[in-house]
What does this fold into?
Amino acid sequence: MAEHEHTKTDGLGEMATAALGQPSDHAPRLTPGWAAPARHERMAAHKIECNACPVLCQISDGKVGACDRYANQGGALVRVDPVLLLRRHLDGDTSVLDGGLVPFLASAGPDTPSGPTEAAVFVTAVGASTTYPDYKPAPFIVSSVVDGVDMVTVVTEGIFSYCSLKVKIDTDRWLGPEQANVRCEGEVVGHVSTAEYGSQMLSLGGVHHITGGSKKEGRSTVAMMLALGNQQAVDLHIDGGAQVRVQAGQPPVVNGVPEARMRVGCGSATIGIFAQQLAGEADEVVVVDDHITGVLTEHQAGRCLAMRPSGLKIRGRKSTPGRYFQVASPGTGWGGTDLVDPLAIVERWDAGLAWPGQRLLMVSTTGEHAAWFVLDQALQPQPARMPAAVRSIVERIGENCEPSLCSVLFVGGAGGSLRAGVTENPVQLTRAIKQGRVNVTCGGAPAYVWPGGGITVMVDVLRMPANSFGSVPTPAIVAPIEFSLRLADYQTLGGHMAYVRPLAQVLASGSWHPDGAPTARRFVAAADGNPWPLGQAPMLG
Ligand code: SF4
It folds into this structure.
């Protein structure tokens, strides 16, 4: 942790223009009412106070604040990380994406867009600084022309106390009971949520863990969210369940075993998908699944194929013909059950229907487990060598499984500081978003905005630039967010028009903020598959 001290401030001081020194030609002058942070009267002369979050670090020259994001550089408060700018390739664009750091106050270099290439650059909020304590405009309010339309993008790093991660883990294996606590380094940081099709779901973080528990719980929660958001691996323990290693875009590791296959479907669906191929090769097929186990000859698929009833009776609760719930307990064995021996779910064979020599395939929903049996004269299943034709169908079940992955979606509520940084009348922003007049992105990645009140956004961390997230020790998560809309709409909703600056000017001078001014910018290529943030319908419609 960086060297720092914390001291509460007792108010706001002289006008920000004094802190700015000599503003650049391009930087707008501050209007009365927006003030720079005051120097605390008890603060040592060689320190400056950062007010970019409520911690209010007092930072000595050459040191960074508690979050490692701001530093005292020769008496000026600077944002340590560069601002990330996305660049896309347009026809006729011969400029080079250099990827290196370029100071904002340098003269316009070859990577500075002008003319048509203005449409190829997007300023993200990664490294941009914040609007905290809520009364000042966003650090970047950037105008550009896209397809002949004047657009504006309002860019800020949000400080999120209300935020969580929704984690989807592609596995049949049972990770723990719903509502069970999920722990990280011993602290409760979330819970098991409802399972989805082929996936177990975790809900991690959230304001109750960040603010509602002990200080250690809050810090552990934010540290876990920061790591997962930045696409790093985190080890989690589920009470009464499994140990699981989670990393966005990587296979989950359950109890030390990497998961490979996401099932092709539930047991009933697997029966239906492969019924025709199996019908001629086996007399009965059981697809073992913790949720819905399928029995082919009894299942509607087997009936449609006019298969002879096998007489097999399995344990569990019958839902509909050939579909059984609760055949075993959940676990990490066959089909997400605790089964090691699949015959444990066989209750009996109906002697009036079964026959010696009957061929039985038992297989899991991933094809990972499979066994072949033949009934003897006493109608007892005897293990036998699986025929090649049956083996190839089992392999096809496996082939139809997708790779198991962990997906991590960040959910955050854009509160006061964010919205006030966009407009003097924040409800107008909320309404404009709901009307589809504002495109919301996080680090340039598309964000889903939840219906209903407020601005609750959800974004896939893998679509965001690497290391998009930060944290502050309040504790809270810092995440980038951008609002793009027509310039005319921005004016209508009460935007901070005096702070709108053309992209070229922004690239030359950086943020207007007197505190937390970014020192450098870095271009990265826009991610493949992400829509370009500007010019999205219905903004331009
Ligand atoms: S943003 Fe970072 S440096 Fe600034 S007050 Fe908060 S913790 Fe300290």
